[in-house]
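re: ur question from yesterday

yeah so i grabbed the chain u mentioned. its 101 aa long if i counted rite. heres the sequnce exactly as i have it in my notes:
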Amino acid sequence: MGDFLAFRKMITPVVVQIIFWLGILGCVGTALAILGGSSSLAAASPVSPKIVAVLLLIVGPLLIRFYCELLIVLFRMYDSLRVIERNTTGVVVPVTEVKVG
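ran it thru and got these structure tokens back, copy pasting raw so excuse formatting
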């Protein structure tokens, strides 16, 4: 609980996963709505609503996945930095002992 209150434990990766699944549901729901009401959109759009719906079903989830992966990568980098910090705390190398070459 202390790590949570001190912002050392991140809850955002879980939230990003929830956003991903909500985005997927949104893409599928929108595509189904376009397919269901395609007769009213056909006259107003130069592109067939069925093509738009299929593209939304294919491209939409991919774009949502890319975006969420970018967010998750940031938090994984943070976790890796925390591991590096834990592994190197207390190890101090004086400048005079460092040998180059």
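noticed a couple things. The chain has four helices and no strands. also The mean pLDDT is 81.
anyway ttyl
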